[in-house]
Amino acid sequence: MSRTEVFGILSSLLLVVAAALVLSGCSTPEGNAAEGKRWYRMHNCHACHGEQGYDGGGPDIANIDMRYRSFVHRLRNAETAVMPEFSEEKISNEDAADILAYLQSIER
Ligand code: HEC
Question: What pLDDT, in 10s, does the model give residues 13-71?
Fold first, then answer.
């Protein structure tokens, strides 16, 4: 095998590894609805959005049709003075995925 061939193989290997790293870093964490229900109560979401997500004074967020990224963005950035901001220290990305899974699992 020539030097160029070896180099070619090595660099394609590197590309594969780099792609895998990027993909794993950006992928949506798998949400756990049962855990999410706990976080939802723990962070007092129910105080505004209701026990079931649709039975509170705040907007109906049960079965919310929101992608994980927008959901997390929404949690981290207040749009109004009413809905508090939840930083990553308060609600980790994993916990946010759990909460979203919970909201999307609500039956009515
Ligand atoms: C103090 C009341 C309050 C609390 C606590 C609260 N929210 Fe909200 N939430 C609101 C209000 C009011 C809005 C709509 C206005 C706005 O977006 O700020 C909202 C909007 C949202 C939206 C966007 C809904 C849409 O259709 O765009 C999501 C998602 C959401 N809340 C999730 C949560 C989660 C998850 C928690 C707990 C971690 C939580 N909220 C805690 C009051 C609250």
Answer: 777 777 776 666 566 788 999 999 999 999 999 999 999 999 999 999 999 999 999 99
Atom of ligand 1 nearest to the CA of 66: 29
In one-letter notation, the amino acid at residue 61 is: I
Cα 14 to middle of ligand 1, angstroms = 43
Task: Answer yes or no: is the C-beta of 79 below 6 A from any ligand 1 atom.
Answer: yes
Ligand 1 centroid distance, CA of 83 (Å): 5
Superfamily of domain 33-105: Cytochrome c-like domain (1.10.760.10)
| Exposed/middle/buried for residue 27 (C-beta within 10 Å: 0-12, 13-18, 19+) | exposed
